Amino acid sequence: MPQKKTAPLRKSATKRQPKRQSQKNKTRRRNLFLALGAFFVVVVASVVIAVFAAAPRHTMDRYAYNLSEFKAKGYGRTNIANLAGSASTSLDTGEACRKAWEAQSKMNVSYNYFCWRDSDEANGWKPQGITGSGSAQTGADGGNNSILLVSWYSEGRPPLAAPSQTESGANSAARFSVVNMKTKKYRHVELVKPCTKSANKMCKVNSHAGGIAWAGQYLYVASTTGLYVFNVNDIYVADGKPVLPSSEWFGLNYSDKNGEMSARVSSVSFDSSANQLVTSEYRDQTSKLATRIARWNLNGNHHLGTASRVTAASTFTLNASSIQGIASYKGTYIANSSSETVPGRSGRGGTLLKWRGSSSLSRYRMPYHMESAYVDTANKRVWGMTEPGQHSPKSFVFSYASGVVF
Question: 316 near 52, Cβ under 8 Å?
Fold first, then answer.
């Protein structure tokens, strides 16, 4: 009888052993890579959460001013298009402005810029916010899509533009400049509101005017505890000077457990790609609280609406300090900080922050004393500005191609 051949079976089994060991090693390596990948995701998520986090939604309560008594006085009327066309003060682009600008540390791109006249900063006036007709989606510019509006505030108790108005005793005043970039000329318009005791007269708007946004026929001015709203079709000429009375006040209604204001409206811009306002607050580097940023829906007329209370569409926090200006377009955000760190500069200074969604922050070196930001979609420019300070006595308005950051 032939014998059974069992040796080949043992040999075959012996040959499989290294393959099994190799498979085990592959499994161990795969598990290790998966574990490392999961750890990396957790680390990245932790960093993102540290930079961006959801926050309780802000609300604002609406108060409408009664302008009927003031309008009944029969003041003449004008509009932004006429003011831009008749502006007669030339922007400062002289040698002193050029040297001061060139001395500023900033990212290496091509800029357009100008300075203000020294007389503009008399009586404590400081520029704060910037917006323009290039994204306002309005016919109030008379077809001139190269109009800039720049807000100012003063705590120097400046005289009122129209002597027939009454002093309100306010600690500060606010105005905006209408700048015609086609003619390189500008003029100022005082921001006012009805006096409490004499509604037929105007009083100073006690506002820091930290930011300004032009949407449709409305101007929104950031005033720390809320937003003043102005209708650009209601510019009057009182005692030969243009004044714009506020039509509404939206007061922030958000407090912490101690009843103190834990959120602010320090700057504002109009996101024309979403028909929303974007607001941010200022907190310096010593604050333990992150910066809160909110988005507010506008209706078809670019207005916050007539409801007694409005709620932010979304609110989140940004782990960065000294945010002076905020802007967004098609999901990309930029924020101007006056005191953040950035590669290439020793110490803190003007910094442009950029992000999209929950992506990490990109940082760009910019001039000192940075203030607001404005996305000019018509002319494909991003505008920024500074206020005077210890690093530069000159304040600038400047722009660069929007493709740099958007």
Answer: yes
- Domains of the chain in sequence order: 54-404 (2.120.10)
Q: C-alpha distances in angstroms, 133 versus 79, 83, 84, 252, 337?
A: 13, 13, 11, 27, 24
What are the residues whose beta carbons fall under 8 Å from the beta carbon of 327, sequence distance 6 or more?
A: 269, 271, 278, 333, 334, 335, 373, 374, 375, 382
φ/ψ (deg, to 5) at 227: -125, 130
Q: How many CB atoms lie within 10 A of CB 103?
A: 11
Q: What is the pLDDT of residues 195-216, one digit of tens each?
A: 877 778 888 888 999 999 999 9
Identify the three-state secondary structure at position 88. coil
5's enclosing H/E stretch is none
User: Strands, E, within 253-348: which ranges?
Assistant: 267-271, 276-280, 291-297, 309-311, 314-318, 323-329, 332-340
329 SS3 class: strand
Q: ∠ CA(299), CA(304), CA(305), 5° rounding?
A: 75
Could you tell me the pLDDT band of residue 59, with boundaries at 50, 70 and 90? very high
Q: What's the predicted TM-score (pTM) here? A: 0.86
CB contact at 8 A, 235 and 244: yes
Cα(151)–Cα(190) distance, rounded to whole angstroms?
10
